[in-house]
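Input record (one chain):
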Amino acid sequence: MVTQTNLDRYLDSVRLYLGDQEAPYKHSDPLLLTALVEAVRFLASRWQSRYLIYSPSMLVSDDGTTKIVQTPFGNCPVPSSIQENDMFQNCYAQKTAGFMELADEAALILATSYLLRRAKLQSTSISNWTTPDLSFSNVESSRSAREMLNADLAMLDLLFKKKLGAIQWSPFQSNLIQHLNTLKHTV
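The corresponding structure, as predicted from the sequence alone:
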């Protein structure tokens, strides 16, 4: 389990998304931090390795102020303060102004939720039992969990299919613009 990472800034956002905001928490901090680290790895191909997780095995050299690490595209300098399981921006990828772009933060939280829900669903067995007085079935809760898992994945896919804030063109918009242009030329 991961106990320390610079991704800890997203703990409250993940807890909010999961509905796990009141103590005692359903998910421990180390579990959420581990899921955040794994979510960065899970999203690496979609992000074209823009964000990576530091591992000591990546270290090429360390002069005390800067570490040089091996990335999929070559060697990159990172601050010497970087610790195992910290996320960093790949120097060969397009840089973002802050720690992470807003759309990428949303993807990270969705991917973290997806991984946590998937792990819980895989560890929960479906059971039914009946006694003369009582009956129990967790089939419906498993179905609900699977629906939330699929919803997380669908929203994640949608984030990567569309650029947030980009203009979405439709035939209606095209007809509207043609109509407005026609009105402009007739006035």
